[in-house]
Amino acid sequence: MIYSFNNDYSEGAHPRILQALMEANLQQNIGYSMDTHSDHAKELIKQEIQRDDVDIHMIVGGTQTNTLGIKAALRPHQAVICAETGHINVHETGAIEAVGHKVLGQPTTDGKLTTAHIQAALDWHTDEHMVQPKMVYISNSTEVGTQYTKAELEAISAFCRQHNLYLFLDGARLGSALTSRTNDLTLADIARLTDLFYIGGTKNGALFGEALIISHPAIKEDFRFLIKQHGAMLAKGFLLGIQFEELFQNNLFFDMAEHANEMADQLRKGLTDCGYEFHWDSRTNQLFPVLPNAVMEELEKDFLFSRQLTIDENHTCIRLVTSWATRQDGVDAFLAALKKLSAN
Amino acid sequence: MIYSFNNDYSEGAHPRILQALMEANLQQNIGYSMDTHSDHAKELIKQEIQRDDVDIHMIVGGTQTNTLGIKAALRPHQAVICAETGHINVHETGAIEAVGHKVLGQPTTDGKLTTAHIQAALDWHTDEHMVQPKMVYISNSTEVGTQYTKAELEAISAFCRQHNLYLFLDGARLGSALTSRTNDLTLADIARLTDLFYIGGTKNGALFGEALIISHPAIKEDFRFLIKQHGAMLAKGFLLGIQFEELFQNNLFFDMAEHANEMADQLRKGLTDCGYEFHWDSRTNQLFPVLPNAVMEELEKDFLFSRQLTIDENHTCIRLVTSWATRQDGVDAFLAALKKLSAN
Amino acid sequence: MIYSFNNDYSEGAHPRILQALMEANLQQNIGYSMDTHSDHAKELIKQEIQRDDVDIHMIVGGTQTNTLGIKAALRPHQAVICAETGHINVHETGAIEAVGHKVLGQPTTDGKLTTAHIQAALDWHTDEHMVQPKMVYISNSTEVGTQYTKAELEAISAFCRQHNLYLFLDGARLGSALTSRTNDLTLADIARLTDLFYIGGTKNGALFGEALIISHPAIKEDFRFLIKQHGAMLAKGFLLGIQFEELFQNNLFFDMAEHANEMADQLRKGLTDCGYEFHWDSRTNQLFPVLPNAVMEELEKDFLFSRQLTIDENHTCIRLVTSWATRQDGVDAFLAALKKLSAN
Amino acid sequence: MIYSFNNDYSEGAHPRILQALMEANLQQNIGYSMDTHSDHAKELIKQEIQRDDVDIHMIVGGTQTNTLGIKAALRPHQAVICAETGHINVHETGAIEAVGHKVLGQPTTDGKLTTAHIQAALDWHTDEHMVQPKMVYISNSTEVGTQYTKAELEAISAFCRQHNLYLFLDGARLGSALTSRTNDLTLADIARLTDLFYIGGTKNGALFGEALIISHPAIKEDFRFLIKQHGAMLAKGFLLGIQFEELFQNNLFFDMAEHANEMADQLRKGLTDCGYEFHWDSRTNQLFPVLPNAVMEELEKDFLFSRQLTIDENHTCIRLVTSWATRQDGVDAFLAALKKLSAN
């Protein structure tokens, strides 16, 4: 039997989430997220972030959420700065350009943007013959598994406020970032330091759903019109409300992310013990070890994972992803196979 | 207790759908609708429509599906003709214009487009100073509950092919249309007569999901790029596959729609028996009776429904919607209350 | 020889405009409208409108100017209300939709919008499932030659300010409107009552060029970025500056428009004397007489004009347009031919 | 008196162009480029390129022409590959993104794209989660004054045809490229090797105007609709026709470009003689010498030119541009000043 470390959205949802959906199934709810479950979920999230002056919208997927957050904030000539590896720059089939905005991808070594990167983009764009940078987009954890420290996020936030740039944090994998052993950020910090950010459910145990928290007044305005226009207003919006209620009751969101990190930690230790190195140094639920191709090809017979990039003719960086659903026996089997292959 | 006839998306999903999701919950599936459930669901749909040369994409919601179908088909200067009451013209917050296309809404009396309406739009748009009509969009059932007959759809289809216009049928409520007593169309007919159409799951017992069937080769090309770009590619696409598998196994899709129609038939008969008339003559799951305001206001104390339009200062056309989940006791209670109010 | 009343852009430019271009031809000017001619032209226009707190941009064509003014003012979900006959609704190949905005064309009898029309559009659009009307677009003179009185424009302006709607006046034929015998508006009135408007040069003796005057601060912001992005920033922007300098020195703009109106007055009188009626009652440089088809077809042998609409099987409404360049002998020849044909 | 080498669009037009406009000024022409001058100009261009099976559209400006050519060719998910320095990537305020397409800028050393660059972009974009590269955009001469050889253009063309990519050549400065001493391309070669390209008039002696030549049938279709929609259809289109008639009668287009190159050759020689080097090696009408800051600042007192980039704290690369209008005495004065400063 094949076991998959291919991504964190291979299974459905945590059983408690399904259970909650079952229990509410025959209730008659108001449509389009105007229901009481959605209201309650928003209250729970507001408690987590210790803020009441935010608007919260629960949206089905990450690309939608990125597109809507950017579209709501920018005028037609404005652009968004991000790491070259940023999800919006590479893996959304030009969704941001499709709504009219240039994405200014900046080369980084670790997927993390610094104020120096942002300053470089500002320096380059100086007059009306060029787009006007107006937003900074970062992900936490990043697309390569790395994380921002509180000090780093504070520096970016201060820079953005000084330069009148919006700061948008993509939290598709925020659960894993916040429960990583090396994390020193809280949801409240993130709410305080950004203009908008989202808490990813899809990759952390919900069937689907991202909770977008908007604190900047200019971006809040008429946001539901944009959701509807983009086809992102779920008729049965209560499905999102019910899921986020469950995620933020009794700590489920954080418990699931911790499980994913624990599974990743075991994989990381096992890989290190076998002498492998990592292309990007991640403490979250994505790992990027470099394997000899022979080892990789043997592992591919029993495990699913993706090839990330070619290091040299004999080595490849692969990506292993864990999740709330990753099983201990899956991890054990992988490490046993690895050990055996590496001993040869 | 309030009972709602407000819409057909107030409850979650048919229990068999939830059951199927539960059973598959811990399977590891490939993401982005490349999984085996999705493949199987497509096979089942192909059998229903008796066509193998179509592309099928399962998409979360109707506005997304409309936007994608139109965006895929039209070049920037091209426009879509529809009834003035068409969903894309009124109730999608300008989603079609947001992707660049003018919607040419034609006034109708019953929400149904005829070849005369289409011809009128063509007559008006004659040169490059005006948009170029290139697609006809119809809904079955329509936004006002009416249906197309086979003869009507054949006439529109022939006209479109003759004039090199794409024909797009929005089937958000196709289940109710096809199981209406007055229907003479089959899914196979619709596949044969249109260039693309969709089968609505959201309003007929799925948690969410619309199955778009594309038969025109030009619209098929690279469609998955457009889905992804629009943020409409569900990470856990297998959730759509599992639901449509269940909908098209053992007739569930049609059984649920028949239930909705049966409930509507009972309401229609009860309203007629009490002497009320209908603003639009519908045989599907949406009813548009005209009520004295006093009666309406009394009913509103115990039932949820929407006010559709003001007829005169004493009368209002309301909308009652039934669904797979409508309960017999809800219908009985409504009719009993109506009878009592009408007897006064 | 054929004489044309087909439009007001058949000839080049008034000889004084060409002369000014010749005289400045070998000067070295700064590009992109940052030159001293453009500055001077803006000063002259500010004097005309008795306002210094406006931004002025000179742009090559009307469709560009309409698109830019609307794009600068609206967020993605917002729409513009206009007469169904409005240029942006019919004759710009969906330019406004191409930048994402729905155009809400309201049926009128005379091409003029009233507060009742605007209120009707507002009444229809009530929530986030529909576009949000945010701008009113009118033309003066209108597409059917009619004009707004001061009282009418004041009423619309007050309504728009009360309802937080931008008011945009398309002045492609503003010269003819302002010099019409029935006009009681001044450029200063228009600047005071609108949020943005433009003064048309193309149809009044310039080679090309429209001067857009923006008084609303929100629309002013970063407008040059939008001009450049749309490809509407002329490299040799001084060509626009030189032309508008000449137009607003020594009254040339108004003198040319008066000539066009005088020619139209003669045509109107001649047509009336022959017993013909007008489909729209215009006192500007566009006339819409209804002619027997036999008369029309004879006239078409010697004169160019357009057929506007079919009145009945024997009568057609045609359009005659005069301009700064219309020759007295052209008008005389037309009226002589008409008289002869009508006498039969 | 200050003399400007700031750009090639500081003056109006060659006197023969103005003369032609004067002579035709009072003719009554049909609007929107349907006139006989435009027809004749197209015939002259077809003779130059020795092709009759092309569509030609004359358009006011370069950004418009780039946007239209790309918009006409690409579907929504498709992208255009260009040099990182490409005009569409940097200097058009995101015009291409504004119509929905990602620009894939590739780093180059000399502003010229090679098949290796194109292959790299293809290698990176492999599935529907990324945009689909579908067009290659190059400029000749490039934004840094360099040129393509016939062999280079043939290689790119063959590669594009093999990989089903459209090839678009921006010829804003094509005159200077084709008359450069190091050129071995003809207009006929370019027409044969590309799918669309344009011949720039604005930067080579016309008041304004670019002639876009489309040879690929898919891009030709309905192109005038796109022109109009974008606001790029000049009402007095005959102004473009008259200018291009004059440009391609009696060799004026080439004579003017040769003059610009001759002036540039003199500047290049003078700079070289004084011991200066060039940041990019150009044989066209743009020169990029590296000057000591002290020399540059002295020159700035009497001459206009732009600072292109900072080389080190004591040196700057400046840009000098010559044109049809550059005067011998301007060049002489510059070189005299340079010599004097360099002797110190």
Would you kindly provide a written description of the structure presented here, covering whatever features stand out?
Four copies of one chain form a homotetramer. With 344 residues, chain A is an alpha/beta fold. The first copy, chain A, has 15 helices and 14 strands. In chain A, the strands form three sheets. In chain A, strands 2-8-7-6-5-3-4 form a seven-stranded mixed β-sheet, sandwiched between helices. In chain A, strands 9, 10, 11, 13 and 14 form a five-stranded antiparallel β-sheet that branches. In chain A, helix 7 links the parallel strand 5 and strand 6. In chain A, helix 1 packs across helix 12 and helix 2 runs parallel beside helix 12. The longest helix of chain A has 22 residues. The mean pLDDT of chain A is 97.
